[in-house]
Automatic annotation (TrEMBL):
The keyword Transmembrane helix applies. It is found in: Cell membrane. It is a multi-pass membrane protein. The chain crosses the membrane at residues 37-57, 69-89, 101-120, 126-148, 160-181, 187-209, 239-262, 274-293, 305-322, 328-350, 362-383, 389-410. InterPro entries: MFS, MFS_dom, MFS_trans_sf, Sugar_transporter_CS. Keywords: Cell membrane, Membrane, Transmembrane, Transmembrane helix, Transport. The lineage of its organism: Bacteria, Pseudomonadati, Pseudomonadota, Alphaproteobacteria, Caulobacterales. It comes from the Bacteria. Signal peptide: none annotated. This is MFS transporter. The keyword Cytoplasm does not apply.
C-alpha cells in the first residue's frame, strides 16, 4: 500500500546492483589518527632528507676542495631533480597506486642518503643526491592526491595541515640535527644516521597509513586533453606571475640559508658547525606564520599578504648586512617569517586563479618553486665568491623586489 517500501540498509549493502561509495576518513576517528601520524612522518622524512646537507656545505667545500657554488650542488641538484619528478609522480600514481609509491619513494630515498654518506668521491655523492631528489618527488604530489581521495571534504584542511607541519618540522630537524650530529661524529656518520631514521619513518608510514579505498587506477588520459590543460595553465599570465613569485621566494630563502653558514663559521664569528646549525631553529617562527597567513589573507586580501611577506623578507635581508650577530639572527628570522607568509598565501592563490587545470597549475607552481631553490641557491655561490655577504644580500634583495612587483601587479580575485 502506497508504493514499495524502502529496502533496509543491510539489504542495500548486500545488493550488488546498488553501488555504495567506500567510507571516507573523518576527523576524530582511529583511521584519521593513523593517517595523520603517517602523513606527518611522510613530510618529516621527505624534508629532513632533502635539506639535511644544507649545514654541511662548508664542510663539503673543505673536504672535497670545492668552491661554495660547487658545494651547493649537493642541495641544488636534489631540489632540481625533485622539481622534475613532481611533474611525473602524479601521473605514475594513477596506475601504480598512492600508498605503495609513497613508501617506495621514502625508503629508496633514505637508502640513497646512506649511499651518499659513504660515497668515496664528490661526483658519486652528487649522483646519489640527484637520484634521491628524483625519488622524493613521489611524496608531495601523491600525498595531496591521497588526502583528496580518502578524507571527508570538511576535514581536508586538518589532514593537510598535519602534513605541512611534518614538512616544516622535518626541514628544521634535518638541518639542526645534522649540525649537532656533526659535533659528535663525522658528516658521513651524521648523514647515515639521518638515512637510518628516515628508513624507520618510512616503515612506520607504511604500517600506519590506511589503505586506499577510493583510489581507482586509470589508464593514461587523452594526450590532447592533457596538453590542453597544461597549455591553459601556462597561458594564464596571472598564474605565470605567481610561478615567478614562487621562483623568487624560494631563491631568496634557500640562498640566505645556504651561505649564512659560510659567513658564521668564518672570522670574526668563528662558530662551530653545531652552533651555526642552531640558526635553523628560526624555522619555528615560519611554522607559526604559515598557519595564520591564510586567515589574515581572508581579511586583508591575498595580494596584500604576499606583498607584506616579501617586504618582511626584504627587511630581513637588509638586517643581515651589519656585522652584529644578533642583527644577523633577527634578519634570518624575518626572512623565514616573510617566506612562509608569502608562500602559504601564494600557493593558495594558485588554486583560486586556476580554472579546470588546478592540478597542472599546482604542479607548475611546485616546479618553479624548486627550480628557484636549485638555480638561485647555486648562483648565490658565485655572488658569495665575488663580493662576500653584501653581494649575496644584494642578489636576494633584487629577487625579493622582483617578486613584490609581480605580486602587486596582480588583480585580487574575489576571495572564496
Amino acid at each position: 500500500m502506497g508504493g514499495p517500501r524502502p529496502r533496509p540498509a543491510a539489504m542495500t549493502a548486500l545488493d550488488p546492483s546498488v553501488a555504495l561509495a567506500p567510507p571516507r576518513i573523518a576527523a576524530g576517528t582511529a583511521r584519521f589518527r593513523r593517517m595523520s601520524l603517517a602523513l606527518f612522518l611522510g613530510g618529516f622524512s621527505t624534508f629532513s632528507l632533502l635539506y639535511c646537507v644544507q649545514p654541511l656545505l662548508r664542510t663539503f667545500a673543505r673536504d672535497f676542495s670545492l668552491t661554495p657554488a660547487q658545494s651547493s650542488l649537493a642541495l641544488s641538484l636534489t631540489t632540481g631533480a625533485l622539481a622534475v619528478a613532481i611533474l611525473l609522480a602524479g601521473a605514475a600514481s594513477q596506475g601504480l597506486g598512492r600508498k605503495g609509491l609513497m613508501f617506495a619513494s621514502m625508503s629508496l630515498a633514505a637508502l640513497l642518503n646512506l649511499a651518499a654518506a659513504f660515497a668515496p668521491s664528490w661526483p658519486l655523492l652528487l649522483l646519489a643526491r640527484a637520484a634521491e631528489g628524483f625519488l622524493l618527488g613521489g611524496v608531495p604530489a601523491v600525498a595531496m592526491a591521497y588526502v583528496g581521495e580518502e578524507m571527508e571534504p570538511r576535514d581536508l584542511g586538518a589532514a593537510m595541515g598535519l602534513y605541512v607541519a611534518g614538512t616544516a618540522f622535518g626541514g628544521m630537524a634535518g638541518r639542526v640535527g645534522m649540525g649537532l650530529l656533526v659535533e659528535i661524529g663525522s658528516w658521513r656518520s651524521a648523514m647515515a644516521t639521518i638515512g637510518i631514521l628516515d628508513l624507520l619513518a618510512a616503515a612506520a608510514f607504511f604500517l600506519l597509513l590506511p589503505r586506499s579505498r577510493n583510489f581507482q587506477p586509470t589508464p593514461a588520459r587523452d594526450r590532447q586533453a592533457q596538453a590542453a590543460a597544461w597549455g591553459e595553465a601556462l597561458a594564464d599570465r596571472r598564474l605565470m606571475a605567481l610561478f615567478a613569485v614562487a621562483f623568487c621566494l624560494t631563491g631568496v630563502f634557500v640562498t640566505i640559508f645556504n651561505y649564512a653558514g659560510f659567513r658564521l663559521e668564518a672570522p670574526p664569528y668563528g662558530l662551530s658547525q653545531g652552533q651555526t646549525s642552531l640558526i635553523f631553529l628560526v624555522y619555528a617562527f615560519g611554522m607559526v606564520a604559515s598557519s595564520t597567513a591564510g586567515r589574515l589573507a581572508d581579511r586583508w586580501g591575498r595580494r596584500t599578504l604576499v606583498a607584506w611577506g616579501l617586504a618582511i623578507m626584504l627587511a630581513g635581508v637588509l638586517l643581515t648586512l651589519p656585522a652584529s650577530l644578533p642583527s644577523i639572527v633577527v634578519g634570518v628570522a624575518l626572512v623565514t617569517i616573510g617566506f612562509f607568509v608569502a608562500h602559504a598565501v601564494a600557493s593558495g592563490w594558485v588554486g583560486a586563479l586556476a580554472g579546470r587545470a588546478k592540478g597542472q597549475a599546482a604542479a607548475l607552481y611546485l616546479l618553479f618553486y624548486y627550480v628557484g631553490s636549485s638555480l638561485a641557491g647555486s648562483a648565490g655561490g658565485a655572488f658569495w665568491r665575488l663580493g662576500g655577504w653584501p653581494a649575496v644580500a644584494g642578489f636576494t634583495a633584487v629577487l625579493a623586489l622582483a617578486a613584490a612587483v609581480l605580486a602587486l601587479r596582480l588583480k585580487e580575485p574575489r576571495l572564496a
